[in-house]
Design brief:
single chain; 10 helices; Isopropylmalate Dehydrogenase; twelve-stranded mixed beta sheet; 36% helix; 325 residues; 2 domains; globular; alpha/beta
Length: 325
């Protein structure tokens, strides 16, 4: 058994508080977690059990949400982020990381934040969740995986303009991304010999140089070197033929060259159930693969499927790490 998980509140003006309550109702005692946030921000009528330690979450009745109270500066209005609450959102993340680093929590799952709201309210100096978590963990390089039951994808470059991708996609970056992915598949997903494919940067993986030389001059030699070293890896492969069902059956994860190359297929396959996983951290972190959804916050219609999947994946990954310890 792993220790209960911690779930950070995310932006309290978004759907995070609502889907936390819905996830608790769906998971009940089968997957105990403690929510870190201000109880005032939860939907009206939520039954709360304030706890002092994460371990206490396992004994809380399923009808109640275990809460590690963290008082924020202001109430939360659905759909209207308040800069006064930015410091609280950041503090919730930091507290969750401290708890999982101390071994009190089995893993951390993070509800969506809004980067502009954090910058406006607290001069948040990080591009997003992932970079802040790496900073807190003292890790220089991490990778972002999007995962669902039918597919795992890892983009080597993420939130940069497409015009900057060819220069940013160096051999060193791609190799580091592949190695982080391989290590995570072994440690966190229990795959003894994971199979990895690498997408080509250009259409048709360059078609022998006719559509760009990056694939032949950089990606292919790297893949061949890693394969010669014992890794089960193939590529560069044409991205347009990598993601149909028969192709997906031949690998455990796809490393892609840029954001949309990775995210379009997984969001097409499982839009509601995708999970964001940060690879390369000394602890397990997952997150639902969606944003704050200000437009529907407070309406009671937010779908908790991705959060439920993220909590379940976090528990499974934590158990896989515990098994290897």
């Amino acid at each position: 058994m792993t220790a209960p998980l911690v779930l950070t509140c995310g932006d309290p003006s978004g759907i995070g508080p609502e889907i936390a309550v819905k996830a608790r109702a769906l998971l009940g005692a089968d997957l105990p977690f403690a929510w870190i946030g201000d109880p005032r921000h939860l939907p009206p009528g939520t039954q709360v059990a304030e706890i002092a330690h994460v371990a206490e979450a396992a004994a809380v009745p399923p009808a109640q949400l275990p809460v590690l109270r963290l008082d924020f500066a202001a109430p939360a209005l659905p759909g209207r982020p308040d800069p006064a609450n930015a410091a609280g959102v950041i503090a919730a993340i930091a507290r969750g990381v401290a708890l999982v680093q101390a071994g009190e929590a089995g893993a951390i799952c993070t509800a969506p934040i809004h980067k502009k709201a954090l910058k406006d309210g607290a001069a948040f100096a990080f591009p997003g969740h992932t970079e802040f978590l790496a900073h807190l963990a003292g890790v220089e390089r991490v990778a972002m995986m999007l995962a669902c039951p039918g597919l795992r994808v890892v983009p080597a470059t993420i939130h940069i303009p497409l015009s900057e991708v060819p220069a940013a996609l160096t051999g060193a970056l791609l190799e580091e991304t592949i190695r982080i992915t391989h290590a995570a598949l072994v440690r966190d997903f229990g795959l003894a010999a994971p199979r990895i494919v690498v997408a080509g940067l250009n259409p048709h993986a360059g078609e022998g140089g006719a559509m760009g030389w990056e694939d032949e001059r950089m990606i292919r030699p790297l893949v061949e070197r890693l394969a010669a070293g014992g890794m089960a890896i193939r590529g560069p492969l044409p991205a347009d033929t990598m993601f149909h069902a028969a192709a997906r059956a031949g690998y455990d994860a796809a490393v892609c060259c840029y954001h949309d190359q990775a995210l379009i297929p997984i969001k097409t396959i499982d839009f509601a159930g995708g999970v964001n996983v940060t690879l390369g951290l000394p602890f397990v972190r997952t997150s639902p693969d969606h944003g704050t959804a200000y437009d529907i916050a407070g309406l009671g219609v937010a779908d908790p499927s991705s959060l439920v999947a993220a909590l379940r994946m976090a528990q499974d990954m934590a158990a896989a790490r515990l098994k290897r310890a």
